[in-house]
Amino acid sequence: MGIVVQKFGGTSVSSAEKREQVVRKIKHAVDEGSRVVVVVSAMGRAGEPYATDTLIGLAREISKQIRPRELDLLMSCGEIISSVIMVQTLRSHGLDAVALTGAQAGIVTDYHFNNAHIKEVHPAKILKLLDEGKIVVVAGFQGATGDGEITTLGRGGSDTTAAALGVALKADVVEIYTDVDGVMTADPRMVPQAKPLDTLTYQELCEMAHLGAKVVHPRAVEIAMEGRIPLRIRSTFADGPGTLVADGAPIGSIEIRRDKIVTGLAHLAGMALVTIRSKDDLNENGMVLDVFEIMADSGISVDMIQVAPYQIRFIIDEQRMEQAEQVLSRTGLDVTIEPGFAKVAIVGSGMRGVPGVMAKMVKGLRQAEIAIYHSVDSHTNIACLVKQEAMSKALQALHFQFLN
Ligand code: ASP
Ligand code: MG
Questions:
Q1: Sequential DSSP letters for 35-64
Q2: Which residue's CA lies nearest to atom 5 of ligand 1?
Q3: Do 154 and 125 fall within a single domain?
Q4: Count of domains in the chain?
Q5: pTM of the predicted model, to two decimals?
């Protein structure tokens, strides 16, 4: 009997009525003959009693400073509570279920409190419980170090738990249940014409997740991709098939096409553009290294990086602007930092080596009279930096150009 991992997000488990919908999904998989492992997030969003942000608030009321170790102990409770409530709900429906913490489920992490990485998964206990005919409900977002310290996997980390368990259990599929129907070609709040996607490659979803599409945690996609376990993103509250994410190989009767030039759009707002100019060759005088070491030492992440002999450009989070201004002034170079930018990107596994994709992107933006301030590309995306106020217009223009 195949194993299915089903992950339910905070909204899906937030109320008794919604948990009934969750039971329906679990029951459906059981009735189809699968052995089911359920991963749950903490119940609800900020403001609701057992949500992650509410728990953090409890400690912050006393002091803004919380030690990362204690913060993890605190945050892990949200998912543990959720797992027990889910088991109670399943049992009230006559289904035999058992709750496990991340540690009990065999998830071993490194010592990076608040943002730990999973090092190993020991699935023996889950497999034994499944063999006994039980539904296993695992508290998402957490694990433990080799010596039993409780850790969490970074915000949104329940997706990561589900993907890691899927790989360790060699599941047929990992289903990520959420409150939207699947992955869309663009954010429907920006682009009303956005359409749901039937299929997507891991690479495409990864790019979209890193570029701000919030449906699934990028690390979860990377884990599923490495383990070659298909992901399906679908709604708890509707019966549609959602979006299937896999590589280019056919799964069942569905073929994941790798040849779509543009599959979807992604965007990221709140960016500042850093430009460093010099009359001297920045390679020769070693300033290229100085600039990036300064950013690294300040813990400021840089993106859309472009280095040339007399100019360095990159973008940073707007929030880090003042700090960047301060530390870069030490170099004595001519530094300008402008806030108010957004990154808009086209994503598609099939664009590699195809002429004319950038031309079409520029054409779309030009027709909408949107200026490009900077750009960067990979094998699966081209991203342009535009003024933040032009972001949604840019996305609409690109959607019209590529996805109509
Ligand atoms: N509850 C955690 C968070 O809010 C983990 C998750 O929901 O995936 O980040
Ligand atoms: Mg989430």
A1: EEEEEEPPSSSTTSTTSHHHHHHHHHTT-S
A2: 156
A3: yes
A4: 2
A5: 0.88
